[in-house]
Here is the input.
Amino acid sequence: MNVEYFSEGLECLMYCGRKLSPEQRILIENSLIVLLQENRFSGMYFWGRITAIKNDYYIAFGYTNDCLKDRKYFYSIDQYQWQLLPFVQSPKIFQATVLAPDPFFGDPSLQTYVKLDPTFNIVANQVISISSPEVIKLKEEERLAAIVFIISEESAICPRGALYKMVDGRVIPNQMFRGLNDLQIENISYYQLYRLPRNDLKTNLSKRSDYNYAIDFLDTIDGVIPLNQAFTLNMQRNERIAIIKSCVWLGMTFFHKLNSRKHGFVYLGDGRKNFDLLFMY
Amino acid sequence: MEDVGSQHNYSTPTSSTIQSDAPPNTISKKENKLISNKRSEYDDSAKCSNIITTTTTSSSTSISIGAFNSDAQFQRASGHEPPHIGYELSVAKSVLQQYSTLTGDNLFDHLSDIIKRVVDERPPNVIDFFEEFSRNVREQKFHVPERFPPNAVFADSRMFRPAKKILHSIKLPHNVEGADFTIHEEASEEAFTYAEGDLRIDIDYNMRLFVTFNERVEQLQFFWNQCGFTISKDDIFQLASSINRLQTHPSIMQCRFWGCINGLKASYYIVEALLTREELTSRMTMMEEELREKQLPFKMRKNQDPTPLPTHIGPELTPGVYGWENYAPEELEKMTTKARPVPLAEETEFYDIPPEFVGLGCNRFSYFVVNCLFDDWIELPIVTPRQIVVSRQIKKFFTGDLESDIVSYPCFPGKEKHYLRAIIARITASTHIAPQGYYRRMTKKEKDLFEGLNIDDEEEEEEEDFNEGEEDAIQDNDVMLLKNERFELEPLTTLATPVAWVHCRPNILKQGRVVWYDEEKARREREKTLAMYLKMRLLEEMDEEAEEEEADGEEEGEEEELLEGLNQPEIGPDILTSCASDMNPDCLIPWLVRFTSKYTNQKERVLVMQSNLWPGAFTFIFENTCESIYLGWGHKFCKRNIPFQHVPMVHEEFPHTGDDFIETTDPTVEEEMAYNEWLLSKQKMRTTGDSLHEYDGEDIEDYDDNDEEDD
Here is the structure.
């Protein structure tokens, strides 16, 4: 959620049941503005909170040139001192993060050991061998970085038209964005995933007849698997605000105000994936 | 010009950059000329018509210019005038003003619209979003301010309907006169309506003693807001007024906001209410009857309606014997099958553990839910132990529709409202906590007063007492707690550990009840009553005296006593046990402790306890206010995924042996006719005759098998 309209955004996101206490809100808002200034970011966003046992992690991100490619994530325990989250590349770490059974503890330097799932060697429908499960050493800071990356990849949303691809390939917030209108706001295909597109450009464009190269390059959320089950859309406050909640990452909430450029998402949860989703409908 | 160019062929963005690098206007002008020459050849006729037609755009000057341009072009065609700047300009304009054959727009109007809007509105960084901006302008061409009050159809605004509903629900004075009672007025009013005897008034007054719920939602909202979990500000006022509406209902003694459970399409706002005693007793009598009926053994229930005769009676022939038609019908009837009889589905008796009565155990409180705060409250049904047990094995999203089905394995007995009720019961039992000493148990006198025993017949009271004496240890858990008047708040830092907190709602046993129900005993009782019943029927039939019966009854009683020692009641943690002893193998740290403010507001900070087991359950304490609330999805914590029960293996088919099927020649038409006649005659005999054979069902199946084989 953009720091520009921090408290307003929080008010709108209250439909998930949680928000920040006044002290947290004031500390975070102001320290993020300072962070924005120090790093010369062109945009600063509050990402959310991951509940941990001892201390909660607060996450924010900012960018200078491109709001999809060079996002820099920060975390904070005390809500005013922000540290840069490490960049995780190893796929094993991601695997371990998703599988980690214990909740976050609240100490970034903590090391835990996570047992990965065994791998099965299958030839012609017969299990030939089972490798013993690998044990991965996981530092909580890396785990945090990985989970933040995964959650924002899978469930961060923006309305169609909010992001704009420039001719040189950079993606920036669309200044001309005036919000979705009456007819569009309840349609789930007008919301896009806030990440670098994974689908082919042609597939994304061919989804709609009125496509626009600069806007429709992103993946829309109506194509997220499981289809029609990954997100729920509700209209709130006299049907003026669209609230989208992720069912895969419970705690991820997105809001968009009708006919206004205000939109944003926040994750307030414990960083656990809902593995049971397919059985829950 | 360059931007327009890039707009038209977006796919080649390099062209625009090249043009911008080049010296201004010379090249582009040449290009334009070329284009114009080419186009003038193609569109000569179109251009001529354009001069006459009027434009709809905001630029009013275009008509005259167009006329002027056409003149200029004609002049050029004659080739007398030397080139000069005015002429070039007019040529350029005329190029710009060429009308699209598809849409009828022209570039000149569009550009002038864009320029007008940029100058008027001054949007930031237009150059970066020029394509988007230009698209917008074109889209809104017919929404220009000059056309402002749209004289077309006026569409209902999206906000209109909810707004009207809200207004309607508030019941403003011109609709219904003053429906705005506070609970106090209501109570006193109620007292007056009953005011025949002084006793009644006393009781109602006394019942005020037992109000432990904090009804003031808006006051609580302040604390929730401080703690960082809440429903939205607009909703809270509506919630307060709609709770008020609920409270004024005569059958509700007190209620509080329980929380909110998210659903896929809508979320549930839930209110917990304690019904008045009158309501409870009236419901109780209804429920008792129903339950008694349910606990009766099947045979006693069913015997009234006799089992219907099968519609078709199969042959009594033994499979494996050829030439049945040669036998006489008398002989045929005596024959028995050689093959094993096909097993039939046995009717097993299955008894649910009975639910707790309204006003006791899990059903002590009633719950009211609503999807939109301006709708009427809907009461949830009572919860049965089976629903609680099954709800522990499944995990579902709520849809927001109370009547929708729960598709799950094991099959959930009920609709979504039952599931919701079961989840509420479980959450309440495990997450309602308070500091030690905040609540106290009722004294004996208060208990009697609460249950309204002192005014009832004395006999009843004695009975109750006797019962309690029997199972004192078990009954103990199912109590209503009162606020401790002498509670003194310790400093919050000492409360910041789960040790200092206790559960203030009774634990639900694995059985799904608060008070343990002895299934074994119930089974034995059922058997006894069934035996008695059967004996009674026998006796009735045989017209004998009932002396033996009594003797039998005594014997059974002895057996019972012997068995009772073996049957241990299930024990769970007591009410008011410490939260520190919460046990769950998955969730090692069940409670999180947080202060709302660490650095700034030390004096007025609030202590929050968050449940890890039920994410979304919070309890806060500030001075003398301690409240629990749930705001979440209604899912219990699970380590990775919930261990769903597997569907059982498919049962094996009945093993057929060679004897079961034999090959025969198809019967002729005559034979079939004869057989049918024989069947009919037999059927007639049956219906007029008396009892049924036991083998009927099997025979039919045998016959069917044979049929299939023949096919």
DSSP finds 26 helices and twelve strands in chain B. Chain B has a mean pLDDT of 71.
